[in-house]
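I would like you to sit down with the record closing this message with an eye to the fold:
=====
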Amino acid sequence: MTKLKQTERKTATVKDRSGKADSRALRSASDIVTILDRNGVTEEVSLSGTAQSLGPLDHWTGKPITDFLTVESIPKFERRIKTLRKKDDDAVEVLEINHFAKNNTEFPIRYTLHKGDEGRVIMVGRDLRSTAEVQQQLVKAQLALEREYEKHRDFETRYRVLRDNLGQALLVIDANGGRVLDANAAAAKLLDQGLSALTGATISSVFQRPGRSPAIDLLIRCANDPLTDTIELSGTQSQHSVLIHPIMFRSGGETMILCRLDPVTRIVPATEDLLNSLNALYEQTPDAIVFTDARGVIVHANDGFLALCDIVRVSDLDGATLADYLLRGIIDQRVLLETAASAGRVGMFATRLKSAVGTEVSVEIGAAFLGDGSDPAFGFVIRDRSRAEATADMPENTDAMQNAMGLVGTAPLKELVAATADVVEKMCIETAVELTDNNRVAAAELLGLSRQSFYVRLRKYGMLKKDEGGD
């Protein structure tokens, strides 16, 4: 670093060489003083202040100052020098240029240019590195702010699209102030209010207060109660009750409540006479009527089912499934449930029922899928076929029997039995496919075949399309 005495000596030299211009330069505080001759060659460099951190710049001496300027600074420097030399008075020019050091780093200097004697130019400069660093930090901060703003806009856009396209009615409520911070169109429609009027409204103006407790207190209490997840309130405009599912969360230091709204659906009977008639039919019909859940567990059964299965008490059905009373058990139950769930209903499904005492009876079962809500159910009507089979007149000779009898004497018995078995097998496969509404997996289970064996037989009898295959 340049010593203080050296700086004073150089300052005195500057003053001796440049007269009045040097006096003005020395009176102003400076970080760097550079003296150029009439050809722009550096005669002397003096550092002080913060510029001393640049290290010695003695290598500038005897070389053109343009050798130490960045490319974009050279034209600017030359124009200012020309302008300064053309003026007759003691003019002063201000110039901001960038130098580069030995390690190719750049540093900006703000100079005031003064005329000296014998065509010299005195350049008195201030180190602008700290200013440049602050400017760079400001630029970086501005870029970071713009990136965060874009992220915020992107997040807000996604949030609004999600909020507005959900079929679910939503409210966001300030837990402290009790005001609606945000709402979607579904909530405004459910509460029979305009979306703009709903946003910013108080909870007391949106929901009627049940009893003495404010609605906001009820929502907070419900959100904090692990045993209660819903609360029913009535809208002030719609006069309809809604089920509210409140969830508390914190955002930006504020406590908020996200409320999901569901309309309260009241079961309105069509007519009282119709309900009475359906109840009487359920109790008095000789056909068995059974209701199960999605797993086949029996929920309700009438007296007809109890009589058909030789069950004494309804309590004996607790935890029982329909498969417990089907001869083929879970296979028949799965066929009925899957076909009814996919097609909505099953026509007459022929099978056999086993009673509580082990007897068997032939039945026809009709099934219906009773909704795809949170608790789907199935309904079954079971009709006894044993009497019909006992009284039915069986034909003495069917076409298949006539064909088989006509082959007697033309082939060995073993070949006749094999040919007849193929006919029976094909008929059984066609019947299983028809009963399961072309559900190949269910038909294979119904026949007790693997899927591969079932597809082999379908292909054997030409019951597969060309573009179909099996595994």
Observations:
- The chain has 15 helices and 15 strands.
- The longest strand covers residues 241-251.
- The first helix runs from residue 4 to 27.
- The CA atoms of residues 273 and 279 lie 10 Å apart.
